Each structure stands twice: as structure tokens, then as C-alpha cells.
Amino acid sequence: MIRRMRPEPLFPLFAPVTGLKGVGPRIATLLVKLGVEKVVDLLWLLPNGQIDRSYRPTVEDAEPGRIATLTVSVLDHRPGRGPRQPYRVYAGDGTGVIEIPYFNARPDWLQRTFPPGAQRIVSGRLERYGDVLQMVHPDHIADPERGESVPETEMVYPLTAGLSAKTLRTAVASALQRLPALPEWQDAAFAARERFPDWRSAVRTAHEMPGDPAAVIARRRLAYDELLASQLAVALTRRQMKRQSGRALSPRGRLVETLREALPWQLTVAQDRVLREIRADMEKPVRMLRLLQGDVGSGKTAVAWLAAAAAIDAGTQAALMVPTEVLARQHERTLSAQGAGSGIRVACLTGRDKGKARQQILDRLAAGEIDLLIGTHAIFQDGVDFRDLGLAIIDEQHRFGVHQRMLLAAKSARAAADVLVMTATPIPRTVAMTAYGDMDVSRIEERPPGRAPVDTRILSAERVDELADRLRPLLARDDRVYWICPLVEEDEQAEETRTAAAEARYRELRQQLGTQVGLVHGRMKPEDKDAALQAFARGETRLLVATTVVEVGVDVPEATVIVIEEAERFGLAQLHQLRGRVGRGSRPGTCLLLYRPPLGETARKRLQVLRDTDDGFRIAEEDFRLRGPGDLLGTRQSGVPDLKLADLEKDGDLLAAAHDDARLIVHADPELAGPRGRALRTLLYLFERDAAIRYLRSG
Ligand code: ADP
Ligand code: MG
What we know:
Elements: H1 25-33, H2 39-43, E1 49-52, E2 67-78, E3 87-92, E4 97-102, H3 107-113, E5 119-125, E6 127-129, E7 132-134, E8 140-142, E9 153-156, H4 165-176, H5 188-193, H6 199-208, H7 213-243, H8 255-262, H9 269-283, E10 289-294, H10 300-313, E11 317-321, H11 325-338, E12 346-349, H12 355-366, E13 372-375, E14 389-395, H13 402-412, E15 418-423, H14 429-436, E16 440-444, E17 455-460, H15 464-476, E18 480-484, H16 494-513, E19 517-520, H17 526-538, E20 543-546, E21 559-564, H18 572-579, E22 590-595, H19 601-612, H20 616-626, H21 632-637, H22 652-668, H23 675-686, H24 690-693
Parallel strand pairs: 10-15, 10-16, 11-13, 11-14, 12-13, 14-15, 17-22, 18-20, 18-21, 19-20, 21-22
Antiparallel strand pairs: 1-9, 2-3, 2-5, 3-4, 5-8, 6-7
The structure holds adenosine-5'-diphosphate and magnesium ion.
Adenosine-5'-diphosphate binds next to helix 10.
């Protein structure tokens, strides 16, 4: 019944990029890595600015730290000895010599690109390394004899390996020619006051004149469009969910109290407070939409458990959705144990359950013979029907997108169930407003007592060999160690490379430390993963080599050390999450961040932030501040919702405005049926917030 109602003027923008000039299947594949599949995705890929390449000194005068363009003759080649050493090309201009190091480049390509004796123009950032002046991986290499040159300035787009700036510029130019005129969705008075150009001019200016003051305003307009779309989606979803009046879930007995007393420890003051907030919501006849935010290890699970007990004691069912299968099984085990004797019937449903077993769970669920269903997203799929779902808990742990969550919330809306979303993502306040603006927030801001902060150290990977020896005594006293293998950039081979790295490390460590070393990686079948984690939890293995699938959230209190290889490639928030795996019991934890030299300035600063603080909020803010543009990997993994244009640091004022604007709009024209309302529908489709308008009458 729900059809895509995308307005016709948007059609050219949602066509595949392959229709654009110069974009064939090969380029299209590369663009996918930048998140670009449709024409509109390319439009959102705004240039980060301009690079000035006009500084053209002699080698003797060249200052390190600057972007320079040098004309030099190739002197010599020196291949690296060993895999960690760079290949070096030497070149000079009579006044001095520079070194051009390449990491992981193919020697035959380097021989062809830099034939000894030939002249080359190279442009890139100069650095001093000891006494040597270096230009690591130049951005441009031109052959003046073939008439090639290096531009004085250039627009900078975020690039991916193999995609040249020129290709991207051509494709963007071709996309700009197709821009439709769209109805104005901004409030006229506001747009005039901000001096916003119309949408089409804004897109053109932002692409064609980066660096120009006009482009600054154009960008702001586009950022505001995006923020308004996101805030409007949030406001509409909230309205949709609240429209269905909820129900009062009042416990009949004392199940919550009984279970609470059965816990091996006392709730912290913060846990107790948020539990009261949640229970108060549940008892009201309105639907609960609450976000429970608490840093790693703050004890969200216990709160979820007691909230579920409240729903069950009120005669309804509860559901707990977690990001991974392994985590689902772990929760099933611990919660079944905690609820033993209370009569609570716990079951687990994941994608692994098929056929008869699955059907049996579904039947029991529909008959009301299961009180708490734990599982992956499988528990909210079609065909899974609760007899009477009272509370849906979603343990987000970074993995579910905002979009997915909204769909899910809309789905559970049918049952008018109360919704509790738990997140460990230490989101800055501004970000919280975009991602979770539809929810009331509870925060756990303290950790259970008696935990020493994890001692975090930054070490060069060159010291990896001594590590195994240092770990030996710890393993002997039954401590557990996680060993996280390097993260590789996402591509088709990523999982394969990752697995290979993990397996190689596993073999090495096993040679040194014997059978107490275990392995878990993404290629393993879920049941094997589960078995590997179980063996680790029980102490049959004590050092677990893993790709990042060390499921966020696994709880092994004996774990005291986590080693993270190539830590500089992870997002800070992700490192913080991983670090949260250790120091959960009474013994203090250690986190060893190994980096692969050379470590850049920003990368070092990022790791230092992690070393110096244990406060998830500060880490998130710092990550936000330090993460340069183009660090796609970091962005994707830090849990920040995907805003393509708006920069919440620069555009924080716009966010507040968009928030208010959206609320007013939904108040005045809830069906988006008036003239501005219809234009706003176009805006929502433009930013792919389709889910938010699904439930409106077509206007
Ligand atoms: P998270 O918020 O990261 O999901 P968990 O719920 O997994 O945290 O709790 C982390 C650890 O702290 C678990 O081992 C849990 O048993 C323990 N824990 C939770 N609450 C308390 C408490 N009030 N006192 C002591 N330990 C607690
Ligand atoms: Mg948890």
C-alpha cells in the first residue's frame, strides 16, 4: 500500500551516476566507496575547499610543513628493506635533495613514474624527518616534457584510491547541469534574513566557487536544508508515535523488587534514578519514547532487565533487541540465570533459528508463553507476532542507524508498546538533538563503584614481539586478554584481508603461548563465534585474537588487557568501546594501543585524548574536533548520525533554529498539506527521509 511518492522534479537527481559524463562502471564502483550511487549523492559531496599550490621554492629554500610544488630531477631509487620500510625515491634541483618515500607502492610503477635522470614536478606537503626533507606520497607528479603541469589551485573533493580529482570534477559539472528548479521550502522571511540563495543556486555556488564568501552562505543554506529535513523527520515520527495513546503498564506484584534484591550488587544511584524515570513513564497512559544513555560499563543491562520485569509484571511481554547474535545468546544466558525461580520465561530468536525451532518460538510467543524475547533485528521482522508486547528495548551499541531505528519504532507503534533505546554512544549534545530529538533522555553518568580507570598506553608496533612475553604471567593467573587485529578499509576484500591478518597473528601467538590462544572473526559461523567466546569466557582460552567482531558488549569480568593493533585507524569512540571490554571486574585493566609508525600529528593527538581521559563524552567531543574532513572511516565508525552537509560544530546555531522551525511546522500543518507543507515534502524526499512521511495523508 505504501508506494514511493517521490515528486517528479526529483527524478533526475535520483538517477544513477552512470548517466553522468565520464562515469562508467569502473568509476561508478569507486564512487560507491565515497557513498555515491545517485546523482544527488554526488551533489552532497561538496569540495572541502581549495588547495593553494602556488608556493614553488627551490629545494634549498623550501620550508617544511607547507604544501610546495618543486621542479626536480630524479636521482636515485632505494627500495625498502623489509615490509615496514618505505620505498624511497631521491630527487634534487642543484640546490638540495629531497626524499620521496612510498609506503606499500609497487616498485615497477615507481620505476616508470620516476625514471632516473628525468625531470618531474612534484607537489605535496613537505616534512622534515631528522635531517632529511621529505615529500611523502606527492599529490601530483607531472612530466614537464610532456607538457604536464600542476595547477596553482584546485578544488578539493574527498577522494578514494583510484579516483582522480579530474574525474570527479567532470562528473560534478555534468550533475550541476541537471539541477531541477524546486519549490522553496524555507520560510521566506527567514531565508531573506539569512540572505539564502535559492536551492539551485546554492548547490552551484557551493561547488563552483569554494573559498568564495558566497559559497559560505550557499553552504549554510544547504546545511540548513539538511538539518530542517532531519528535524522535521524527527518531529513527524514523534508525532506519529505519540498519536497512538499508549497504555499504563502498572505492575501487579513485586517482581521488580524481588529481582532487584536478587542482583549480586546494589544498583548505583544513577541506575536507580533512571529506572524510576523509566517506570514512571511506563505507568503513564502515554507511550514512552526514552533514550537511555550511559557510557560503556555503566550498567545499562540491569536497568533494561528491571524495566522488562515491570512490563512482565503488568501482564505484558517485553523484547530486547541487540546488535549481534553472540550478544543475544549472552544476554539470554545471564538473564535466564538472574530470573531463575521468578517464573520469567526467556527465549532467544536470531537469524540462526530456522524451520521448526523458529516456528516453535513464534508459536509460544503468540500464545504468550514467552515473557521476554531477546534477539537480533530478527525479532521485529514480519511474521514475529507477540501476544501482547508492552515494552520494546533496543540496545543500540553503535550498530543500528537512526533511520533503521525510526522504522522499527514505527513498527512497534502498532502495538503501542513503550520504547526504550539504550546507547553507549557518547554523543555530544548537538548531535543528540539530531539523532534522538524525538526522545526523552535518561542518563547514567556514573560507573559502578570500585573500578579503577583502565591504564591506557600508546606503543609502536615495533614492540609487538616483546608483548607476548609480558602477557605470559598474566595469563598464568587466569586473566583474559583481547587482541584486536587491524581494521582495514571497507571494500570487497576487507573481510578477507581482516581474516587473513587475524589468522596470521593467531598462528604467531599460538606458537609463543600455546593452546590458551583462541580466535574469533567475522567469517566464522555464528555458532562457532559463540563457541569461541564461550571458551574464552570460561577460561579454556585466555587470549582471544579477534577482528572487531569481538562483539561490542561482551561481558567477561576476568578480562584485564586489551591490545589493539593499528589503533590509529579506528574511530575514537570505537576505541573507547573496545577499551570498555576490560577492567570490568575487580582487577585493574590495561589497554595497549599499538600504532604503525610513522604516526601523524593528528593521529597522535587522537590517541593521546584516549590515553588521557576515560570520559566518553569528552572523547566524542575531541574526536569531533580533531577529525579532519575526508576521514571517512572515522566518521562512519564513530556513531555520529550521517549528516552529509551540516557540520554540527560550525552550524550548531542552525540546528537549534531547525529544531524550533520543525516543531512549529508540525504544529501548524501536521499533514504537510499547505503550500509550504508540500514543498517540505519535496525536501524530505530530497534528503531521503521517506519513512517520516509514510504515514501522512497524501496532500
Ligand atoms: P553497559 O552499560 O556497557 O551495557 P553492563 O550492563 O554490561 O554495561 O554492565 C557492566 C558490568 O557491570 C557488568 O559486569 C555488570 O554485571 C556490572 N554491574 C552493573 N551494575 C552494577 C552495579 N550497580 N554494581 C556493580 N556492578 C555492576
Ligand atoms: Mg551493554
